[in-house]
Amino acid sequence: MTQPLTEQQLADTQPRRIQRRRVKGWRKPDGAVYVGRGSRWGNPFVIGEDAYDRAHAAALHREWLENNSYEVHAPGATSQQRWELDALRDSIIRDAPALLVGRDLMCWCPLPADGQPDHCHAAVLLELANS
Fold first, then answer.
1. Is the pTM value of this prediction over 0.85?
2. Using CA atoms, how far apart are residues 56 and 33, in angstroms rounded to an integer?
3. CA–CA separation, 33 and 14 (whole Å)
């Protein structure tokens, strides 16, 4: 489990999003947290099922966290699926500020070009954790 950063570590960091790589010699930067699928921070909205592209999936993730509006996008969700999404959302909102604040977040999404918006749910988590 990720431990919260000390106040000094927070002062020394500027959190950013990192694209995870599968290249010989590439290593996860110290303190970076993987937030992609398979982690507790992964985006529950899947491209091709819930969203038509990465920007749409990130927008659905933001809307879900801010407004708990998954029912608009998953109207056929069972009561079990709704309970799981509610529990996941509550844990993200509760834990992200303490566990992700000041940390670099890593996922597989490509980084945006300079001046372009970041269409990745990790960017949403960075805002949530560091606001």
1. no
2. 23
3. 14
